[in-house]
């Protein structure tokens, strides 16, 4: 399975080079039909990569991240990897957590995704982190991240 994941990540890195100009790469076609076909093929490959990542990561879940957070699930949503985390908010209400913690967490989480998932994002695979309350099972936060969100971190 490690070889499959390694192969999938290799394909992803190769796909990433099509969205970032690099010297000594093959020229892109100027034929719109050929480009559409190539883009469609990349989407198919990316969906396969996402499927493999979900299968591999799911085997290791749930995973305790810290004393408050547990990584509970990962799934594919088209070309987006969606990771769900459960937060033990203690006695704090869901509304208080949303009000008091979202902005602070968003900055930290988005920067972390930009750094840890750079190859996925450069390969046109988006990443979303969802946080739910351990107590109520209600969604607290959702942080969707696309390459545009990471430009300032990649400079």
SSE map:
Blueprint lengths: L1 H18 L12 H27 L4 E2 L4 E9 L2 E8 L6 H23 L1 H5 L3 E8 L5 E7 L1 H8 L1
Parallel strand pairs: 3-4
Antiparallel strand pairs: 1-2, 2-3, 4-5
Helix pairs in contact: 1-2, 3-5
Pick out its properties.
elongated; 5 strands; 155 residues; single chain; 5 helices; alpha+beta; five-stranded mixed β-sheet; disordered N terminus
Structure description:
- By secondary structure, the chain is α+β, with helices and mostly antiparallel strands.
- It is built from five helices and five strands; from the N terminus they run ααβββααββα.
- It has helices at residues 2-19, 32-58, 94-116, 118-122, 147-154, and strands at residues 63-64, 69-77, 80-87, 126-133, 139-145.
- A five-stranded mixed β-sheet has the order 1-2-3-4-5.
- Helix 1 runs antiparallel to helix 2 and helix 3 (94-116) packs across helix 5.
- The radius of gyration is 18 Å and the shape is elongated.
- The model is unreliable at 1-22 (pLDDT under 50).
Task: Give me the strand/helix succession.
Answer: HHEEEHHEEH
Number of strands: 5
Give the overall form.
elongated
Mean pLDDT value: 84
Largest sheet: 5 strands, mixed
Whole-angstrom Rg = 18 Å
Distance between the termini: 34 Å
What is the spatial order of strands in the main beta sheet?
A: 1-2-3-4-5
Helix content: 40-55%
How does the helix and strand content classify structurally?
Answer: alpha+beta
> Which spans of ≥5 residues are poorly predicted at pLDDT below 50?
1-22
Distinct helical segment count: 5
How much of the polypeptide forms β-strand, as a percent range? 15-25%
